[in-house]
Design a protein that fits this description.
alpha+beta, seven-stranded mixed β-sheet, globular, two-stranded antiparallel sheet
Length: about 180
């Protein structure tokens, strides 16, 4: 994995979101996005990468199996028996092909394999495509972990894994 190229993809994807603060407004945040190698060096964090059939870099997601290392700020790091998903990004050229959904579903399956009871994540109104996808997968608002990143409202979501999950990681309600 070329972490420099992946970092560029993340910065470009996030900076292109309408309503998202720009790199000059939140330089520390964008430096964190760009520094994939530093995040990947954390023992509880795995960066999963999505590529095209031709091997081109299409996107990534950070999977955190110990919420104490979630790293977003706010109270999410106190959530127990959970895994976290952060920093989902898809290259513009790969959008609309399920590149964001596939790694999210993979993370749900991985959480179940680890015996966790929930998956936690954050998103913003600027990330409307991701927000809609998360709700479609069964994630519900988790306002107890909402926080602000500068002027940006960041909204918590969770998926309770007590719900059945099919082989693709899609939540299926059992009640």
């Amino acid at each position: 994995m070329n972490t420099t190229d992946l970092g560029r993809l993340l910065v470009k994807a996030y900076a292109a979101l309408p309503g998202m603060p720009q790199p000059d407004e939140q330089p520390d945040y964008y430096a964190m996005l760009a520094n994939v190698a530093a995040r990947a060096a954390k023992p509880a964090l795995t960066v999963f990468v999505a590529t095209s059939d031709a091997g081109s870099l299409c996107g990534s997601v950070d999977f955190i199996d110990d919420m104490r290392q979630y790293g977003s700020g706010g109270p999410a790091s106190d959530v127990t028996d959970a895994v976290g998903i952060r920093l989902l990004a898809v290259d513009d050229a790969c959008r609309g092909k399920g590149i964001g959904k596939a790694p999210t579903q993979f993370c749900i399956v991985r959480a179940r394999q680890l015996g966790k009871t929930k998956v936690v994540l954050h998103t913003t109104r600027a990330m409307q495509t991701a927000w809609t996808m998360y709700e479609g997968l069964g994630f519900v608002r988790f306002p107890e972990i909402d926080f602000r990143q500068g002027n940006l409202e960041v909204f918590g979501f969770r998926l309770d894994l007590a719900d059945a999950v099919d082989g693709a990681g899609t939540a299926v309600r059992t009640s």
